[in-house]
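**Protein record**
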Amino acid sequence: MSGPRSASGSRERGVITRRHFVGGGVAGSIAPPLIAQGPPARDPAGDFPITARGRAFLDTAYIGPMSTRAQRAAADFARAKAERPLEVGELLRGAERVRAKFARLINASPDEIGLLFSTAEGENVIAAGLDLRPGDNVVIDDLHYDTEFVLYRALERTRGIELRVARNRGGAAGVAAFAPLVDRRTRLLSVAWVSHRNGFRHDMRALADLAHAHGALLYADAIQAVGAIAIDVHATGVDSLCAGSYKWLFAGWGVAPFFVRREVIERLRLDRYGEMHASGAPETGFTIDPSARRFDYSSRAFGEVHVLDAALDHLAAIGIDRIEAHGVGLAHRLHAGAERLGLRCATPAGNRAPIVAIALPGPEDAAKAAFAVAGVEATVRAGHVRLAPAIFNTDADVDRAIEVLGRLARS
């Protein structure tokens, strides 16, 4: 899919396309600013080959680099497929390991995890599964990803539903923004757990309570959350989430773990079928798996599953709490640095996610050139720079980005 270029010249998925941020607003559920960096986990230079390039890679919100461990797994799978394709059975059995490891990462059961191909597929499965009817409505917010607007606007035309959009204030969309839009015909609240636009982290418990009080479900696009922050799906009450693995899970494309709460699984109508989720005689008496494996209807991207298996081991070895503290600490350092320069942040102060969007003090082309010359890789679009520090980043990486912003502010 075509899209605008990041500061490093790579293609970027949609980000910060809505210009009505006013910056600096603090939602009630957002923690006070944490300036101190979280403790480094392991040796980032040893874990991620990208750190050897001498550049500050602050663009994991666009594409996360593979760790050495995941890179080795990719090479092992390719070698096995090339040299002994009839003997890769063990590598093909990685799906159940991934299911269990992903479940542990978000505090779910393996039976609540399906394996899809992309985050967009997850939202489509939910929308199709709810069998939306004319007069039903879906509520999202303006910090959501572009796919949701395309999907639900299309369903307005084809199914007669209504899409309702909550508006952010100061870069935050709290439950109060959603509440007036939810009623007895609301079937689904859908949000990005962490927004790709400015990193805003939603209060999922409050949104779940709102949705459930009206008989609706809560779905989360969690591609910017899983692997970046600690998640407990049952404590938060979320009914379903999906997360592609090429960002904060530091794996590849083609596999997206899909959580559906056990009590919700059989409420979702299946709209696709295949032999992978069926047992018994296909011609006469097959049954469909009653667990979330029912959403795994076809052959998987087995190589990518194998890579994700290794990547999840890597995250577990570091520890998700340490990963969150480290990334959020660096994000707060960026936010504070931008404020010292007098720049407006589209990300609320104290936000507990490792993504910060900062309004540029001048033209985008000048900013892209300045970041490139300084060796800082970030996404520049719609008058903002989005910076996303990860576990392998350091104070020095963040300070290099702040120095670039300072030069731009003075020019």
